[in-house]
Structure of (2Fe-2S) ferredoxin domain-containing protein:
Amino acid sequence: MGVPQPAFYIFKCEQSSPPGMPKPSCVNPQTQDLFQHLAGTLMQKGIIATVQPVRTACLNRCNAGPVMLVEPGHFMYYGLTKDKIDRIIDEHIIGGTPVAEYIIPDELWDAPISPEAMQQQMGR
Ligand code: FES
């Protein structure tokens, strides 16, 4: 038997904007410890070997931040706090039921477009 793949990847946006930037970003002084909280909680619960937290750059949903994407499944969680992360870990990651009320609204996260369809839209 080989080394098992992770069951989940959690991509946490770690983008911060310089002071004075009008565009919001996921990391600011109030939210800068969310990734540490996520990773620490996975470690504390003994599941970090199969749930891989990943720091990412901007996931392009800045106005809804802080955000994180749970794969598999394309589940984008928004407006994160430590309490919300705790519940997502317990109910979605461990329990298997996504936390519907924390998932980004459909108007900000519509169905994906295939790369082939994207090329056709672009006339290539
Ligand atoms: S800064 Fe986090 S989605 Fe853009």
Observations:
- Helices lie at 34-44, 82-94, 115-121.
